[in-house]
Write a structure and sequence with these properties.
Length: about 290
């Protein structure tokens, strides 16, 4: 890749008068040695799987194998359609769709890890709800995925995307940054605005620990996906309004790496701290152990 930082990415795009999605498509084709059409076709299939996961969690009875989670996406989707959501109808739909994909993941269904299975709901939640809201076609959404991929590439190569390495800030935080940035571009923002959107999003999740109850990607992971989708929408709106990330986004990524590297082992996906070690968290873990015997 010709870029290793978000600043380099934005500068390349602006110098060559390209969107981040267009540049990433070209870079991917060059690095893989495959025609760009093949990469686009693969990404199109990924988006199809994302939309199917959204649909499945909203319309079918999806329950995790542990029995801890399931059915919340339907509740939020119904509330978004028939209630009066405080965040508004479309953010509530994004929340429901993110919950849906995460519940499908917990039930061992088919999802696309963007960037991980633990944060798989945020990007589909934002993209599918935005597609419905603005009437975009699938080709445009695929361009959004390429933009998100470029952002994820930079984060992964300069920090963490794994909860075991950097806490939940690395999984949920990265997904929020990817979703916020690609939405800025989809809505006509400049490459520089995209990068600011990423920084604004990531700053909101610095220090977020990974504390899965019973070691399962369910509690609190699924809820964090739902809320993460709403955070991504907010960060995108900030960037589109002209707000800047005062601390450059690449420096924010560096801070995420620093925090993740010093985070206690108990707060990095071990289920030895945080919510996993509350009285209720320990009780649920013990119940599941008894059921498995």
């Amino acid at each position: 890749m010709r870029f290793q930082t978000l600043r380099q990415l934005a500068e390349l795009c602006e110098r060559e008068s390209k969107t981040i999605a267009a540049l990433m498509t070209e870079e991917q084709a060059q690095e893989s040695g495959e025609p760009a059409e093949k990469a686009i076709g693969r990404m199109t299939e990924y988006y199809r799987i994302m939309k199917e996961a959204v649909r499945k969690g909203i319309t079918e009875n999806v329950v995790s194998h542990s029995g801890l989670t399931g059915g919340d996406a339907k509740k939020v989707a119904d509330y978004a359609a028939n209630g009066e959501p405080s965040v508004g109808e479309w953010p509530a739909k994004a929340m429901a769709y993110a919950l849906s994909v995460s519940e499908v993941n917990a039930s061992m269904g088919r999802i696309i890890a963007t960037p991980t299975a633990g944060s798989c709901g945020i990007l589909p939640g934002v993209l599918v709800s935005s597609q419905e809201r603005y009437g975009w076609d699938d080709d445009k959404m695929v361009q959004g995925l390429f933009c998100a991929g470029a952002i994820g590439y930079v984060i992964a190569n300069n920090s963490f995307i794994s909860g075991a390495e950097g806490g939940c800030q690395a999984e949920i935080g990265s997904a929020i940054g990817m979703a916020a940035g690609c939405l800025v571009e989809l809505r006509g923002g400049s490459p520089t605005q995209v990068i600011h959107g990423v920084g604004l999003a990531l700053k909101n999740t610095l220090g977020l620990i990974c504390d899965p109850v019973a070691g399962l990607v369910e509690v609190p992971c699924i809820v964090r996906n739902g809320l993460g989708a709403v955070n991504a929408l907010a960060a995108a709106d900030m960037a589109l309004a002209g707000m800047r990330s005062v601390i450059p986004s690449d420096e924010v990524i560096g801070v995420m790496r620093e925090i993740g590297g010093t985070m206690p082992m108990e707060h990095r996906e071990t289920a030895l701290g945080g919510l996993a070690q509350t009285p209720t968290g320990r009780k649920l873990a013990e119940q599941l152990r008894q059921e498995q015997r």
